[in-house]
Amino acid sequence: MNNRYPFVNGPLPYGYDALEPFIDEKTMQLHHDRHLQKYIDDLNALIEKEPMLKGMTLETMLRVWPRLPARLRIPVRNNAGGVYNHRFFFSGMKPDCGEDNGMSDNRLARALKKQFGSEKEFREQFKQAALSVFGSGYAWLVLENGRLAITTSANQNTPVTLGMIPILSIDVWEHAYYLKHYNVRAAYIDDWFSVIDRDAADRRFCAALRPNTHRG
Ligand code: MN3
Predict the structure, then answer these.
(1) C-alpha dist (Å) from residue 36 to 28, 67, 176
(2) pLDDT at 88 > cutoff 80
(3) What's the 74 CA to ligand 1 centre distance in angstroms?
(4) Whole-model pTM?
(5) 142 Cα–ligand 1 center, Å
(6) How far apart are the C-alpha atoms of 82 and 40, rounded to whole Å?
(7) 35: CA distance to ligand 1 center in Å?
């Protein structure tokens, strides 16, 4: 996946219909080909006019965000954030996760158990956080100061700008679920737990624990 200007919308790592019946084909198609595409187009158009952003990775743009000139802060937050957040979200899911997609015994699973007590308790707290986002945004599992935490962000804001390292996220904008789940965000969150890629989350967690390897 290219991570510098000009950004290109690479294909999903699975088919549009691969997450059925949990997330429907039409939603995935529109979400990737229309919504993410729009952020990519707008980000490229912005960087075209603002050469200082050329050559920066998404992660760099988001990390240096507080020090960007004022005129760039809102468009970078919205568009670099929009590209980063969607790529992160899409690559955090996979098809055929098996019945109930239970936690495998990996490093992240052990850390979650230690932090939240149990898989069930982690899911419950994560679900409540995702439900608590008013309007559009995301819920995240992040590593912050070496500790796992659940957080949320509004719109296309990202915890990367706050120095946190994302491990897992759910997009709770209505475009992520409205065609199938209508306004019932809770049902979408429950379905999403069936398609989270635990191996990908574990890889992110392990990389985050190694200093400097996550820096883009
Ligand atoms: Mn979205």
Answers:
(1) 10, 26, 11
(2) yes
(3) 18
(4) 0.95
(5) 19
(6) 8
(7) 6
Domains of the chain: 25-91 (1.10.287.990), 107-209 (3.55.40.20)
Determine the distance separating the centroid of ligand 1 and the alpha carbon of 47, expressed in angstroms.
Answer: 21
Instruction: State the distance from the centre of ligand 1 to the C-alpha of 36, rounded, in angstroms.
Output: 7
Token digits of residue 178: 């409205």
Dump the DSSP string for 64-95: SGGGS-HHHHHHHHHHHHHHHHHHHHHHTB-S
DSSP 8-class letter at 104: P
Identify the CA nearest to 79 among candidates 50, 41, 49, 48: 41
Q: Which two tokens stand for residue 149?
A: 């935490």
Task: Find the 189 Cα to ligand 1 centroid distance in Å.
Answer: 14
Between the CA of 114 and the centroid of ligand 1 the distance, in Å, is 31
Structure tokens at 128: 């409540």
Whether 156 has a pLDDT exceeding 90, the answer reads yes
pLDDT in tens, 94-112: 998 877 676 678 999 999 9
Ligand 1 centroid distance, CA of 176 (Å): 6
> If you measure from the C-alpha of residue 117 to the centroid of ligand 1, how many angstroms do you get, rounded to a whole number?
30
Q: Tens of pLDDT along 17-49?
A: 999 999 999 999 999 999 999 999 999 999 999
Helices (H), 36-167: 37-49, 58-63, 70-91, 107-116, 119-132
